[in-house]
Amino acid sequence: MLGSLGQRVGSRATLEAWTEVVLEDDASTAKSDRPDGLILLETGRKHWSALVEAKIGNAEIGEEQLKHYLQQAKKHKVDAVLTITNQFVAMPSHHPVKVPKTLLKGVELFHWSWMYAVTQATLLLESGEISSPDQRFLLEEVLRYLGHESSGISRFDSMNREWCQWPSEMTHQRSTKLTHP
Predict the structure, then answer these.
(1) For residues 19 and 36, is the Cβ–Cβ distance under 8 A?
(2) For 52, what's the count of Cα atoms within 13 Å in the CB-facing half-sphere?
(3) Domain housing 48
(4) Contacting residues for 24 by C-beta, under 8 A, at least 6 apart
(5) Which pTM was predicted?
(6) Looking at the 3D structure of the chain, how many domains does it have?
(7) Distance CA 176, CA 118 (A)
(8) Bridge partners, 37 (sequence order)
C-alpha cells in the first residue's frame, strides 16, 4: 500500500506504526486535534514518515483539522499527512479536501478510502504471498472486522446524482438494449 504513496518497501526496510501520537511541544493540544497515528519507514539511508488521520461512518476530515495536521507535519519534519475515510478518490494523491497549496510545500498529502484498504488486503490474502500463519490470521481478522457493519466502513455503492441522470434518448437506448438482447 505504501507503494501507492511513492514509497518502495524492500525486504530490509523497517516499518513502524504508532497510534494517538503526541508530538513534542504539542502536549497541550486537545485530544481531538491529535493525529490518530504516525508511520515511520526506514529503507537504508532514506527515512519517510506520515501523520495518519482516520474517520469512519459519515465523518469527514474538516479543512481546519487538515490544515492543523499539515502545519504539525511541517513543524516536526514529517514528510506526509495520510487520511483514511469512506470518501472515494481516484488516486491517493487526489485529496477530497482542498487546502491552500502553500500548506503543501515540504509536506505531501494523501488519501485512502477504507474500501481501497480492504481491497488491497483482500488481494494480498488471495495472492498467497503471506507465508506467516500468524500474519495471515491477523489480516483475516482485520478484514472480518472491517467487513462488519458496526465498523463504520461503507462500501462505494451509489453514484452521485449527476451520474444517475440519463438524457431521454439514452434512457430509451438503454432500456431497449436491456430488454432486447
Answers:
(1) yes
(2) 18
(3) 2-179
(4) 76
(5) 0.80
(6) 1
(7) 37
(8) 19, 52
What is the length of the chain? 181
C-alpha 139/C-alpha 125 separation (Å) is 8
pLDDT digits (tens, 9 = 90+) for 39-88: 999 998 899 999 999 999 888 889 999 999 999 999 999 999 999 999 98
User: For the segment 100-145, what is each residue's pLDDT rounded down to a tens digit?
Assistant: 999 999 999 999 999 999 999 999 999 999 999 999 999 999 999 9
Q: Is 110 within 8 Å of 83 (Cβ atoms)? A: yes
Q: What is the DSSP string of the chain?
A: -GGGGT----TT-EEEEEES---TT-TTS-GGGS-SEEEEEEETTEEEEEEEEE--TT----HHHHHHHHHHHHHTT--EEEEEES---SSTTS-SS---GGGGTT-EEEEEEHHHHHHHHHHHHHHT----HHHHHHHHHHHHHHHSGGG---------HHHH---HHHHHHHHHHHH--
Q: Which three cell numbers stand for residue 131?
A: 507465508
